[in-house]
């Protein structure tokens, strides 16, 4: 006699109680939880195809079930009372249903509790222009953006419009009015919602991710016309971020895009997670670019764009810092080990040289 199919609820509770970041459910394997960057197997039975299908159906609304039947993909947010809020991706792999579920915060964490440089709080209070938060999946981009929106919400009387896929962190009105729109629920797509947002009297526009040329173009246009725009890109550092934005466009448009970006950009916040030396989680390493006159000149001139990392190194007066500068300070303060810090660095050799000069390694 076969056993009854299982519910997803106990595994969501386990994810929350263990303070894990993600839950992975796959046919033929026990569920696993990502703890401090490492995927750990739960003490649970192997999942069957019936189990994962039941889990997916337990989480999905009817419209999502129909979408999944057509496309074999579904990405959405899910809240479980008394447990938490989650971002869910359901997919098919070798014909079987799989799930990856990310635990997200119910509300925003204030910027001053995130351990971010003070200059990021200053960037959050810009009245116009474009700020980008970059880094790999799972490095806390959404958390940083939510902290910036929370600061604006608490300190400015304005209208904030967010366009997200899906909505992960909910914001209640404070001094600001916040309207959060979810792609495929409230709007057909990012660029459609952006066009509509321009008719909604926004002061601040958050775009969950800049995925295509049309969205990038609309974001730049909004930033140039007096709005404050926040968004994310999956890039490794500030210099690569600028190159990625320009590469969204055909060569004959790139000169104009460079000029637009040089004028609209206010800053780029790059993020990476590095294991803590005490094994109690991970530290956030941050690269911060602030768009000064020299940086704007380097963005506009393709012959100078390669100098952006050097300009960040020289921009301490404006609060700028490279990943390597921040990682060296974390090694110096004992927050991360030399091995982990060097592995996360942009230029490991240069970091080792600096550490030797400081007497921190032999």
From TrEMBL:
Which branch of life, at top level? Bacteria
The record's section on CDD domains has: PilT (cd01131)
Gene3D superfamilies for the chain: 3.30.450.90, P-loop containing nucleotide triphosphate hydrolases (3.40.50.300)
Which SUPFAM superfamilies does the record associate with it?
P-loop containing nucleoside triphosphate hydrolases
In this protein, which residues make up the domain named Bacterial type II secretion system protein E? 198-212
Checking PANTHER family in the record gives: TWITCHING MOTILITY PROTEIN PILT, TYPE IV PILUS ATPASE PILU
Q: Which protein family is named in the record?
A: Belongs to the GSP E family.
What is the name of this protein?
Type IV pilus twitching motility protein PilT
Q: Which organism is it from?
A: Spongisporangium articulatum
